[in-house]
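User: Please run a holo structure prediction.
Assistant: Happy to. Please share the sequence and the ligand.
User: Here you go; the ligand is zinc ion.
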Amino acid sequence: MKRMKCPVCGKKFEPHRARQAYCGPYCKKLAANRRQNEKHKAARAAARGTRTCPTCGKVFTPKSSLAVYCSRRCRNGSRPKVQREPSPPTSEDASLEKVRAYLALSASERYARRDELSYKERRLAMRVWEKDHLGRCVSVNLQL
Ligand SMILES: [Zn+2]
Ligand SMILES: [Zn+2]
């Protein structure tokens, strides 16, 4: 019989049966477990629903129930590499006002206008957003 390559461990093997896809029972079980895992992952993702990333406005499926940003890059508030360039110095107060106006926009407007903010202002926007967000959570707790 023709030699086959096991899709799990990559080992070459001679199948004993015509429909044998894996080198042995161990790899067969592993492959079945993986398929189960994929199913579970999809089910968990569906249960969590979707969220809107505060940095880029993208609707994403959070990897954990605590995820706020779509990616590590958005959490760090950094720009994609292509757009990275030194930004001119701006005063903190002027930036703060700009940032507040920016945060007042809807997620899709923020996404469309994200390039109007410098790297520093985007960092500031993240801090303000987080402060506002945490502040709200605290006041809700106090009312309980
Ligand atoms: Zn194998
Ligand atoms: Zn994002």
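Helices lie at 25-48, 72-76, 92-103, 107-112, 119-143.
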